[in-house]
Design a protein that fits this description.
The protein is α/β, with parallel strands linked by helices and 594 residues long. The relative contact order is 0.11. It contains 21 helices and 19 strands.
Length: 594
């Protein structure tokens, strides 16, 4: 088979053990170890595993993709195996480590099943493996947890003392509040869209806010405010985040507004920073009292069904080497804890931890895939600008009164709810408005009421685009005729949204309708085929369909949105539109960015 290259390169407090992936990992790990032991006994009996002596002839090649932080430790173990002529199947074990950021690999594996060039993948967190599994991408098998590293707040020593290190301890809520208010240190973080450290830290902040407030709305507001502050000093990757720290202890570097004085980072990253020659001022670590998140470095087999028996045994042999005493000592020398999270006092001290900081406290339970998608969605909606075109049904049925609506029609409540949603968008967001009903523009059943543009831009007639859009929403009224081409309108609006795609924003098309297509034009099958042709994974434009009332054709809407990665929702009452829309945008944001 051919091989494809990979690219270079608010949840509540949880209790109890995580189900599913964790149990499967333990069983698989045990099975592999038993397989290795049984295979080794047979091999020894038949002379397939000679020990000692130089390597000659063919070697047993194993290709491993690993996150940048753990790759040096893996390379050290692989080099030792070559130097010691460690064998598998009677051949010398030849492990080749290639550094790959976990997000890049997850993107490649998650988009579709591929035939990878690696047999083993070791990302920094199992969240990447879970994401690929949820997306039904390349088959992955988490076989073991090699190492771990808790996520903490690293602060340059001069500033750490002013925050009370090491004697003063904080909860997540108090720690982040202290680090983001008043004369707090400049705080940086790696982008949660690309970094497990950033995403897991944001999850813990949200969970702590939820526990502290006991009010989901207030917790969401607090977390969103923190996200906005963090986004001001965000870095694309963990490595780039470390590069934002002062380069030396001089006043010029310490006072440079472009330099961060604190980072949310892993203990291992702080260890590596403190150990690096010329790495800048030493970091001290604050460990939250209420349970930190942690990176867990799963040893992951890639499409193991397609691996040859030799590759499977080589993968098992290397996993065994990493789990043995020498392999674990190598991982400790590179700043990692054991897979069970047990603190190593020497590692902690070198990383910048010291009692009474709770560095030995048990970590919080890991979030589920759905919880992380929600966190990613909130982050995206909070900090990533949006380009959205709303297409609203203006047929006669939208004039129907809503039961219990004090005489107001579906259109009245729809306009009010959409204006509520509009109020949540920033001046940098781009919003537009179309409507559709029979023959609004010649033979066309749709018309643009306000072009999709930046809300803060000034309009030629005066005022901002937000003002003009507010007026356009206010002008929506049901047409006297019922017939309308929902499918023709959707295709035209989606084609326009794709053609005007704005890079760096969450692009989306929102369809609001209370009926079904009743036009003799484009059919459903033809529409779906044309939408599929327009979809570009590099420029995603998810369609969000909001179905109001019992006559809305949700089955057709489900088919329309599916190729775009969007979603269809039945809205019980038009007054709920803004809540459903924002939730749908969060979900769309949680699937990206890509």
């Amino acid at each position: 088979m051919g091989r494809h290259s990979l690219p270079d390169g608010s949840a509540p407090e949880r209790t109890g053990a995580r189900s599913g992936t964790r149990r499967r990992t333990l069983v698989l790990s045990t099975g592999l170890v038993l397989a290795v032991v049984a295979g080794s006994v047979v091999a020894l009996g038949s002379g397939l595993l000679p020990f000692g002596g130089p390597c000659d002839g063919q070697s047993a090649r194993l290709d491993v993709a690993a996150s940048p932080d753990i790759a040096p430790a893996l390379e050290a173990v692989a080099n030792t195996a070559r130097e010691d002529a460690t064998r598998t199947d009677g051949r010398c074990l030849d492990v080749r480590i290639t550094t790959r950021t976990a997000g890049d690999v997850a993107d490649a594996f998650g988009q579709r099943p591929v035939n990878p060039e690696f047999q083993v993948w070791i990302p920094d967190s199992s969240l990447w493996v879970d994401r690929v599994d949820a997306e039904r991408g390349t088959p992955l098998t988490a076989a073991s947890t090699l190492a771990s590293s808790p996520i903490a707040l690293g602060v340059v020593a001069r500033t750490a003392g002013s925050l009370g290190w090491p004697g003063k301890t904080y909860t997540w809520t108090k720690l982040i509040r202290t680090a983001t208010s008043g004369d707090a240190p400049r705080l940086g973080v790696a982008d949660p869209a690309h970094s497990a450290t950033g995403l897991l830290a944001l999850d813990r902040i949200g969970a702590a806010n939820a526990k502290d407030t006991q009010d989901s709305g207030e917790a969401g507001t607090r977390t969103a405010a923190t996200a906005k502050l963090l986004h001001q000093r965000i870095a694309d990757s963990d490595g780039e985040a470390l590069a934002t720290l002062p380069r030396d202890g001089s006043g010029a570097e310490q006072g440079n507004p472009r330099r961060n004085q604190a980072l949310l980072l892993s203990e291992q990253a702080a260890y590596a920073h403190n150990a690096a020659a010329g790495g800048g001022p030493r970091l001290d670590l604050f460990y939250p009292q209420d349970g930190t998140a942690r990176l867990d470095y799963p040893y992951t087999l890639v499409d193991d069904v397609e691996m040859s028996p030799e590759q499977t045994r080589a993968a098992s042999r290397f996993m065994t080497l990493l789990g043995e005493a020498d392999g674990q000592r190598t991982l400790r020398r590179h700043g990692f804890r054991a897979g069970n999270g047990e603190a190593d006092p020497k590692v902690v001290a070198a990383a910048g931890g010291r009692a009474p900081q709770p560095y030995s406290a048990a970590p919080a339970d890991p979030p589920t895939v759905k919880e992380l998608q929600a966190v990613m969605g909130r982050w995206t909606v909070t900090v990533q600008n949006i380009r959205l075109t709303a297409v609203v049904d203006a047929t006669a049925s939208m004039g129907s009164p809503v039961p219990g609506g004090s005489g107001r029609s579906r259109m009245d409540l729809t306009k009010h709810s959409l204006l509520q949603a509009l109020a949540t968008f920033t001046p940098e967001d781009e919003i537009g408005l179309w409507k559709f009903a029979a023959s609004l523009d010649g033979d066309k059943d749709y018309a643009e009421l306000s072009p999709t543009g930046r809300l803060g831009d000034r309009e030629p007639a005066g005022g901002t685009h937000r003002d003009a859009l507010t007026a356009a929403f206010g002008s929506l009224a049901p047409a006297p005729r019922a017939a309308a081409g929902l499918y023709d309108t959707t295709l035209a609006a989606y084609r326009e949204a794709c053609a005007t795609y704005a890079s760096g924003k969450l692009n989306s098309l929102v369809i609001v309708t209370d009926g079904a297509n009743d036009d003799a034009g484009l059919g459903l099958d033809a529409l779906v085929d044309k939408v599929k042709e327009l979809v570009d994974p590099r420029k995603p434009v998810p369609v969000i369909a909001l179905a109001i009332g019992p006559a809305a054709d949700t089955a057709a809407l489900d088919r329309i949105v599916a190729p775009t990665g969007g979603s269809a929702h039945r809205v019980g009452a038009p007054s709920q539109i803004h809540q459903v829309l924002l939730k749908a945008l969060m979900t769309a944001g949680g699937k990206g960015p890509r």
